[in-house]
Design brief:
globular, 129 residues, five-stranded mixed β-sheet, Trna Endonuclease, Chain: A, domain 1, alpha+beta
């Protein structure tokens, strides 16, 4: 039973990795520098960590082909935001950066896995008030 469930998750995981790779390429072309990917901690996971000049950018990548209920950017709920903030705080503490660097949370929303698309990039999508 576990093997079957794992096989069902694999295509989704691969799609997520492809979406993150597209988002990373897009952000690097926009001038951001790659720092890390799939950083876990504090009860959450940060898809990408990038640097935009002197600002550390925590990026949530969303892939959403069906927008019937919500767009990719709208799918970053309050609960998801809290998890991302906790994960970012954990990362900053672990790396001894808590008071040393400006931070922001961005969302990169993709509708397909095509490199031809123009992703929706929401800078400073939410804050850690």
């Amino acid at each position: 039973m576990i093997g079957r469930a794992w096989r069902k998750l694999q295509p989704q995981r691969n799609r997520g990795q492809q979406a993150e790779a597209l988002a990373r390429d897009f952000l690097q072309r926009a001038g951001l520098k790659f720092v890390a990917a799939n950083v876990r901690g504090g009860g959450g996971e940060i898809d990408l960590i990038m640097r935009d000049q002197t600002t550390l950018v925590f990026v949530e990548v969303r892939l959403r082909g069906n927008q019937h209920f919500a767009s990719a950017s709208e799918s970053v709920t309050q609960s998801k935001q809290r998890k991302l903030i906790r994960a970012a705080q954990h990362y900053l503490q672990r790396e001894h950066l808590s008071d040393k660097v400006a931070c922001r949370f961005d969302v990169v929303a993709l509708q397909t896995l095509s490199s031809e698309q123009h992703p929706e990039w929401i800078k400073n999508a939410f804050g850690a008030a």
